[in-house]
Structures are given as C-alpha cells and as structure tokens.
C-alpha cells in the first residue's frame, strides 16, 4: 500500500549560529510517498488517519533539547508525529477490530500507518457526538490540560468571587480553560488574545466576561478596567511581557497555572524561561504560587476528567472552536500558522473522511 507522510526537516533549527532560535517555516517540512509493509505482524494494526493535531509544544520538539523529559525531539528526515485519531482498517491485535476508532499522542503524520496496538487507545465516538476531532482537543489532551490545570493548580472556589485571566485565550487550551473557569465558579474570566475577531469569539461565543487584544490595546490599563478587584488566578499559555503584566496585578495569595510559554518557544532559552527581577519580586511579595504544570503527571484522573469534559461538550456547556485545514500536504503550513496565532480554537488538519 502506498501512503503519504510528512517528514520534518529541522535543518533550519540546527547547526546554525542562532542555535534553536527562529520561527518555524513550512519549508522545514517535506512530503514523501512511501510504501507500507504488505503484511501486519502480530500485535500490529493498519490505521487510516482521520485527523491530526498541531500544538505549541511541538516547537520544542524541533530542538535537540526539548526542555521536557517526556518529549522526544523530532529527528531530521524521519516521519513527524503528534496527536492523531483514525480508524482501524485491518488488525493483527486482539484488542482492536476493523472499524474501531483509535487515538494516540504519538500518531505519525501519515495518511495510513502500521502501528503497534499497544500504543493506541480505543475511543467511543458517542463521547463527542461523532465529532472525532474533539478527541484531539476538548475531549482529549487539550481539554485535560485545561481542566486538570485549573483543578490542580488554580484553586478555584465556588462563591469566593474570584477573577481568572487567561493568556493565549483564543487558542485550543485557553478557549476551553476560560469556560471551565466559569463553570467551576469564577465570577469573572478575562481573555487576552491577538485579534479583534478572537476577542469577539471569546465574549460572544464562549461567554468570557471581557477580552483584550494585546496587539492593539494597553494590556495593563485594560486589565485594571476588566478586573477591578484584581486577579486571583492566571492561566498562563504565553509567558513573556504579557505574563509580567498580569502577574503585576494579581492579588495576594493568587495562583499562576504555568501551562505554556509560546512567546518564548522560538528562543534558545530553558523551559520555563527565566523571569525578570520585578516579576520574581511580585511572586515573592504577594505569596503567589507558580508551579510548572504537566498534565501527564495526573493520568490517574484522566478517565473521570474526560467523562466530565464529554458531558459539558455534549450539553453545550462548553462550546468547541476549531480551525480546520484539509490535507496532509498542509501540515507544515498549519503548524506555522498556529505558532503565529492564525487559529481560533484548536488547529486541526483533516486527512480523510
């Protein structure tokens, strides 16, 4: 069988004077046609890819040192992988049968793939009312990151009159996290994002209390206006100057959920990136918690959390935003667009119907 896969060429990120600096470009990826082995080995399945995901953490995988022990770097001229969902077309694994819908955090960027059954997870399409791409977002690792980040690090208490601010609020994780903040009891949720269209989506579609366009508005002034009682919980997806501005307005005893630092991923700095002296002093003087959050540390809570996310999505208490691009040939374009904020909600690539 012929199949097409997208192979990562990371030469622009390696062996130059700038180390791991620089924004990724579509030319870092190339498409190849290869032939799969005609017969499956014991324990293997042949899958047809339905949807693939591109996410900010993948930029770290373009570096030799990803900054996280659980992330392996993408290898030059080898097939790239990430979150994916697909359907079993044939199986030599007792766990899976033809027609099963399966997902993996390490799905190869291929139209078809032979995968070890042990690396797959069967999913029930009823959990997402047939919207299978949601398994890569709201009812997948993205939703888990939002929910467990808030529950484990946010310390949201119903009736406590708390205000939450979310950076990268119109992205895959931020757009879900804001809605969970409201469902869990925050009285005010304010999103920071990069366009007027995104601000409109957050307020009108997702129910955020307010949204701030950091490209056009004075973030510090708008935060004071939108959060008159200060900020209690900060869901940080971006880091950098925006986060410094938010932390400066946090209340004593507040909590920073350190989810991501996308503004720093194109720089050759450690993760989490170093903070300014002023921000470090704010953390100390206000007794703010700011601990790195890694969702994979909470796998024992995944099943219950996924069920809760599913119920919220099916009842429309959580609304899901997606930006969908068609075709494996557009993986690189979609990835680079996502890194520049070209998506609203989860960036998905549809590979087949």
Q: What characteristics describe this protein?
A:
24% helix; six-stranded parallel beta sheet; 353 residues; seven-stranded mixed beta sheet; 16 strands; alpha/beta
Give a verbal description of the structure.
By secondary structure, the chain is α/β, with parallel strands linked by helices. It contains eight helices and 16 strands. It has helices at 141-154, 172-183, 196-205, 219-226, 240-248, 277-285, 302-314, 331-339; strands at residues 2-8, 29-35, 44-53, 78-79, 81-91, 101-108, 112-116, 121-122, 163-167, 188-193, 210-213, 231-236, 250-258, 289-292, 322-326, 346-350. Strands 3, 5, 6, 7, 8, 15 and 16 form a seven-stranded mixed beta sheet that branches. Strands 11-10-9-12-13-14 form a six-stranded parallel beta sheet, with helices on both faces. Strands 2-1-4 form a three-stranded antiparallel beta sheet, with no helix packed on it. Helix 1 (141-154) packs across helix 2 (172-183) and helix 1 (141-154) crosses helix 7 (302-314). The chain is globular and about 65 Å long. The model is unreliable at 7-19 (pLDDT under 50).
């Amino acid at each position: 069988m012929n199949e097409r896969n997208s192979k990562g060429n990371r030469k622009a990120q390696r062996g130059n004077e700038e180390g791991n600096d620089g924004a990724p470009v579509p030319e870092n990826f190339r498409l190849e046609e290869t032939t799969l082995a005609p017969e499956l080995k014991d324990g293997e399945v042949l899958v047809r890819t339905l949807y693939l995901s591109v996410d900010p953490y993948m930029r770290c995988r373009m570096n030799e040192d990803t900054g996280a022990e659980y992330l392996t770097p993408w290898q030059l001229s080898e097939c790239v992988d990430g979150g994916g969902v697909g359907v079993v077309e044939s199986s030599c694994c007792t766990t899976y049968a033809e027609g099963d819908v399966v997902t993996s955090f390490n799905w190869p960027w291929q139209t078809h793939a032979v995968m070890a059954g042990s690396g797959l997870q069967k999913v029930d399409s009823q959990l997402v009312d047939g919207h299978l791409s949601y398994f890569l977002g709201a009812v997948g690792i993205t939703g888990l990151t939002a929910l467990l980040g808030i529950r484990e690090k946010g310390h949201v208490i119903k009736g406590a009159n708390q205000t939450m601010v979310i950076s990268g609020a119109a992205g895959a994780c931020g757009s879900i996290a804001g809605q969970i903040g409201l469902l869990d009891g925050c009285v005010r949720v304010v999103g920071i994002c990069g366009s007027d269209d995104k601000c409109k989506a957050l307020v009108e579609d997702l129910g955020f209390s307010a949204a701030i366009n950091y490209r056009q508005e004075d973030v510090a002034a708008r935060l004071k206006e939108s959060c008159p009682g200060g900020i209690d919980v900060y869901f940080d997806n971006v880091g950098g100057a925006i986060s410094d501005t938010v932390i400066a307005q946090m209340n004593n005893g507040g909590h920073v959920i350190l989810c991501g630092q996308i503004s720093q991923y194109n720089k050759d700095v450690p993760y989490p990136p170093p903070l300014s002296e002023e921000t470090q002093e704010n953390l100390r003087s206000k007794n703010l918690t700011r601990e790195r959050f890694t969702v994979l540390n909470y796998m024992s809570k995944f099943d219950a959390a996924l069920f809760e996310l599913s119920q919220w999505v099916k009842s429309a208490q959580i609304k899901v935003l997606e930006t969908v691009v068609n075709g494996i040939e557009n993986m690189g374009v979609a990835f680079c667009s996502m890194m520049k904020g070209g998506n609203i909600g989860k960036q998905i690539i549809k590979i087949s119907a």
